[in-house]
Amino acid sequence: MKSIAMLFRSIAICSALLCVGLAGTLRAQQWPSETADQTLKAMHDELERSRQGLQSSEGEKPYFIQYRLLDLDARTITASFGALISSTATHNRFMDVNIRLGSYQLDSSNFISGAPFVGFLGSAGQVGVDGDYNSLRQDLWLATDQAYKEAVTSMGQKQGFLRSLSKPPEVADFSQEKPVSEVDPRVVPDWTNRNWEEEAKQATAAVRAFSELYAARITYTLIYETYYVMNTEGTQVRKSRTLAAIEASIETQAPDGVPMHDFYATYASRPAGLPSAAEVAHQLQTRATRMMMIRAADPMPAYSGPVLFEPRAAASLLSQMLAASVSGSRPPLSMIPAVDEIMEELGGRSEWSGRLGTRVLPAGTSLWDDPGAANAQGDPLPGSYAIDDEGVPAQKVNIVEGGMLRNFLMSRRPGPDSAQSNGHGRNVYLGDPRTASSNLFFQSSDAIPPADLKKKFLDLCKQDGRQWCLLVHEMDNPEVGISHSQDSQDELRSIVEGVSSGERAPLVVYRVNVADGTEQLLRPGHLLGMNLRTLRDAVGIGNDATLFSYIQSQQQEIAGTALAAFGTATNGVPSTVTSPSILFDDVEGREARGQMRKLPLVPPPPMPPKQ
Q1: What does the pLDDT look like over 451-474, one tens digit per residue?
Q2: How distant, in Å, are the alpha carbons of 9, 362, 404, 586 from that of 537?
Q3: Whether the predicted pLDDT of 580 surpasses 90
Q4: Angle at the Cα of 314 (from 524 to 253), degrees rounded to 5?
Q5: Among the four 264, 437, 554, 595, which has the fewest Cβ within 10 Å?
Q6: CA angle at residue 129 from 124 to 131, to 5 degrees?
Q7: Is the dihedral of CA 30, 35, 37, 39 positive or negative?
Q8: Confidence of residue 317 (pLDDT cuts 50, 70, 90)
Q9: Residues 124 and 97: beta-carbon distance below 8 Å
Q10: What is the DSSP string of 249-292?
Q11: What is the maximal distance between C-alpha atoms in the chain?
């Protein structure tokens, strides 16, 4: 059962960071000695004790028990206009206990009820950071007791709900997978190789000359984590992973008072992989210069005609379009109709469910996801992994071949088209693992050079009798691009209103004059009807594939929806999309409906360059 309160468990953990029956025995293996990792030993010993003794007075025993633990070291540095705002380093450990009653076919999971379980302690929470064996066993013991009681309550409510349905679902609740044993070396955090505070200050000082900017903020996020998962099937995994991120935003107002923003985000699998302060400063200066031009540009008017997406914009668009449909896992049962309605509104409904063997993309196109890919075009991929967060080995999955749907990405939650996991269960901060892409590749056997695609684009515009058409250079991410939470929520709300029907928000848009091919910046509006049916009917694809890295949000309320593309380093999993340019022949657009605000009454104070 996942009540509404339980849906936000992973968010609470994130907040803490920032301020077949069990009759058989566990698979025999050599467990760590007293001088080795006491976390693994404590998890094993308490798991074995629970396996043998945990049951109710009626004799009901779990068929599955799983312990997860996250050891998290994080450093966050924030600066603005050359001044250091904050610099924090935290070390936390969190645990999560998952108990399932019933069987793989029907168990106590995948169910949202209207009432939360009320108990003394939770089945997830914070534990000691020093890895003390006895303290951790005590925490696991209490959390196991709570998780079992939650499962008993959930099973009763779920069985009652299923009896009320005229046609209960036939898809299993959980897939049975082979156990995995993989204990990787632990990575010790090292913050000393670069002066991160000084780099953050240098980067934001580069935009001090732009007096029209109201905000310029950068955040360096460096994360080292050791993730443990152990269950009664015999899986034992310890894996270390790191993420380094730079996320920067610049903000201003147009002369008519409409808020405007731009952003820069880059992600690496190691801190050393982040660009230098000079490169970041150059990127911010380039964006600030462009924003001043957009600030003075004409708003994008109502539009209907061809649109050409350049590679980065196309990749970002795909991350929004495909999130729900590449997953083959079924959604949970819910007693609350509003839950299904919300997922629909947020673009969380699969457009490909039940369509295996049919054409879903242009003929000649292929789409695959490869978690094990180490790099693309010579660049390391921060979203790579060997074993997913449910302890299942990651597999390359060919989703679409020649335009035909062949497979889905799967976690251990089965779906109507696939019953087994292929290693795509991902989570952040011990949230429930969700089916998610990692390294997604999109290409076409009919790809053409960018110059030829541009000519085809202009020819389509001429055929439509248009003097100009739209070219999209970059797509928006308001979660990164807007530093104030209320402004970010307002912008997201404007996107949510139309996201289920394919409304998308470009960040950088050009008007391309058909006569001579010259380009002029426009103040961006919104594009309409950009769904997978539109993608299937794309009329041109380039051979200029480009890597786009982003964070796929795993917040419970938006994971697996179109909005999951709007993640940040603190709420999601690193992901990539490699895509070429894509040409559409008939797209509608409208002017953005940003709220006009009064301009400041007094000009900004002078801000000389920082010495």
Answers
A1: 999 999 999 999 999 999 999 999
A2: 40, 6, 13, 10
A3: yes
A4: 20
A5: 595
A6: 95
A7: positive
A8: very high
A9: yes
A10: EEEEE-TTS-EEEEEEEEEESSGGGSPPHHHHHHHHHHHHHHHH
A11: 82
Please classify residue 491 by burial: count the beta carbons closer than 10 Å to its beta carbon, then call 0-12 exposed, 13-18 middle and 19+ buried. buried
Strands 582-590 and 540-541: antiparallel
Q: Are 328 and 405 in contact (CB under 8 A)?
A: no
Token duo for residue 460 = 């389509």
CA angle in degrees (0–180, nearest 5) for 280-286-289? 140
Q: List the domain boundaries for the chain.
A: 6-77+86-179+229-235, 303-590
Whether the Cβ atoms of residue 182 and residue 227 lie closer than 8 Å to each other: no
Query: Quick count: other Cβ atoms within 10 Å of Cβ 259?
Result: 18
Identity at 605, one-letter amino acid code: P
Chain Cα centroid distance, residue 295? 30
Q: Are 369 and 441 in contact (CB under 8 A)?
A: yes
In whole angstroms, how large is the CA radius of gyration of the chain?
A: 25
The residue whose two tokens read 């010993």 is: 45
**Looking up tokens 């009901």, which residue turns up?**
60
Angle at 383 between CA 378 and CA 388, to 5 degrees: 135
Residues 6+ apart with CB under 8 A from 28: none
Show the tokens assigned to 41: 């030993």
Q: Looking at residue 387, what is its pLDDT?
A: 97
Least confident of 18-27, 40-49, 122-131, 310-319: 18-27
CB-based contact 440:367 (threshold 8 Å): yes
Written as one letter, the residue type at 122 is G
pLDDT at residue 120 in the model? 43
Integer Cα distance of 71 and 492 in angstroms: 32
User: How many whole angstroms separate alpha carbon 491 and alpha carbon 563?
Assistant: 12
Whether pLDDT at 217 is above 90: yes
Task: Write the burial class of residue 79 (CB in 10 Å: 0-12 exposed, 13-18 middle, 19+ buried).
Answer: buried
Q: Which two tokens stand for residue 61?
A: 């025993």
Task: Supply 170's token pair.
Answer: 């036939």
Q: What CA–CA distance (Å, rounded) separates 457 from 314?
A: 15
- Exposure letters 125-136 (e unless 16+ CB within 10 A, then b): bebeeebeeeeb
Contact 2, 112 (CB under 8 A): yes
Could you tell me the two tokens for 436? 């998610």
SS (H, E, C) 394-419: CCCEEEEECCEECCCECCCCCCCCCC
pLDDT band with cut points at 50, 70 and 90 for residue 26: very low
Of 313, 319, 309, 390, nearest to 561 by C-alpha is 319
Relative to beta strand 506-513, strand 468-475 is: antiparallel
Q: Using an 8 Å Cβ cutoff, are 311 and 442 in contact?
A: no
611 - beta bridge partners? none
What phi and psi, each to the nearest 5 degrees, are found at residue 442?
-130, 125
Contact residues for 295 (Cβ-Cβ < 8 A; gap 6+): 212, 252, 253, 254, 255, 260, 523
pLDDT at 273: 93
Burial of 386 (0-12, 13-18, 19+ CB in 10 A): middle
For CA atoms 367, 373, 379, 380, the dihedral sign is positive
pLDDT above 80 (res 487): no
503 pLDDT tier (thresholds 50, 70, 90):
very high
Evaluate if residue 25 carries a pLDDT over 80.
Answer: no
Identify residue 246 by its one-letter amino acid code: I
